[in-house]
Amino acid sequence: AKSIAVLTSGGDAPGMNAAVRAVVRAGISKGFGVLGVRRGYNGLLSGDVEEMNLRSVSDIIGRGGTVLYTARSPEFNTPAGVQKAAEACKKLNVVGIVVIGGDGSFRGARDLTGAGVPCIGLPGTIDNDIASSEYTIGFDTAMNTAVEMIDRIRDTAESHDRCSVVEVMGRRCGDLALQVGVAVGATSILVPEVEWDFQKDIIDRMRFAQKSGKQHFIIMVAEGVGGTTELAKKIQETTGIETRATILGHVQRGGSPTLRDRVVASEMGYRAVELLEAGSSNRVVIMRGGKIVDLDITEALSMQRVFDKKLYDIALQISI
Ligand code: F6P
């Protein structure tokens, strides 16, 4: 029987398991054998592959992480590595692969398609940094986790009349910081997409809010801006307000996926199998206008991200 394979690659994201489940179940329903490849592209190179059945993905829709494990594979990222992986796929009689991951994983999928193995990419990353898609699997869960954590930080910042500088993940993308910053009412939101000035965008805003009686502050920093610990020191020195820094880190990557991530992952996983069934290749499944659609990988990789400046400006006006 013809088989398809599924792998997760790059940083894990909550909802990847829901996507794996959808691919396995849809694949089997449509008459394919489904192989689970462990640890991303590394599993193709080392033959770490298992035959999946309907029950292999039972009870994983609500679990964080990825049951297939994940990795970033330097060996695969060479022409020889891609060739070796393509040959492994042919030996396994694999007619197509669903790759769940970010931009780096999509580049791998494009190269593997070029070497004769049809690939379909699914956007899975907490960063929401895939230009072609309005939404990436894991983003909703990460945002909600960050909000929950910062609500806790706020309790203690408020009790002590302190300022808390909080860094969220996102690599070079400010989406997590923006959404979370709005949701927690951060006094300032620093993202790599928008230039900022220490005095004007942080200190002046804190002083202004102080005049109307505000005595505790959350300053939101995107990972791509960095310097969070030093920034907290500088704020304390300049304002005399006791300031603490918190880097939320990998807590944002784990946890049970939200309803949204489970549903989007299920729809996208199903769509990927439909595409392979129809003989399509080199496509990514994306969200556009709230709908699940697909696009050529090469075209998707050439797109530029658009930052939501409107929401950023709204945040500045109402978080005062
Ligand atoms: O892409 C997800 C992400 O968590 C980014 O936000 C972050 O920059 C990076 O991965 C961290 O990678 P690692 O887990 O390898 O340290």
Short structural description:
The chain is of the alpha/beta class and 320 residues long. It has helices spanning 16-29, 41-46, 79-91, 103-114, 139-159, 175-184, 198-211, 228-239, 259-277, 297-301, 309-318; strands at 3-8, 33-37, 49-52, 94-101, 119-123, 163-168, 188-190, 217-222, 243-247, 283-288, 291-296.
Fold topology:
Elements: E1 3-8, H1 16-29, E2 33-37, H2 41-46, E3 49-52, H3 79-91, E4 94-101, H4 103-114, E5 119-123, H5 139-159, E6 163-168, H6 175-184, E7 188-190, H7 198-211, E8 217-222, H8 228-239, E9 243-247, H9 259-277, E10 283-288, E11 291-296, H10 297-301, H11 309-318
Parallel strand pairs: 1-2, 1-4, 4-5, 5-10, 6-8, 6-9, 7-8
Antiparallel strand pairs: 2-3, 10-11
Subcellular location: Cytoplasm
Keywords: Allosteric enzyme, ATP-binding, Cytoplasm, Glycolysis, Kinase, Magnesium, Metal-binding, Nucleotide-binding, Transferase
Active site: 127
Helix content: 40-55%
Bound molecules: 6-O-phosphono-beta-D-fructofuranose
Number-wise, the strands total: 11
Order of strands across the main sheet: 3-2-1-4-5-10-11
Mean pLDDT: 97
Characterize the largest beta sheet: strand count, sense, and whether it forms a barrel.
Answer: 7 strands, mixed
Q: Strand-residue fraction? A: 15-25%
Q: Provide a count of the helices.
A: 11
Beginning-to-end CA distance, first to last residue: 62 Å
Gyration radius (Cα, Å) is 22 Å
Give unreliable regions as ranges: none
Give the structural class.
alpha/beta
Shape: elongated
| Helix-strand sequence | EHEHEHEHEHEHEHEHEHEEHH
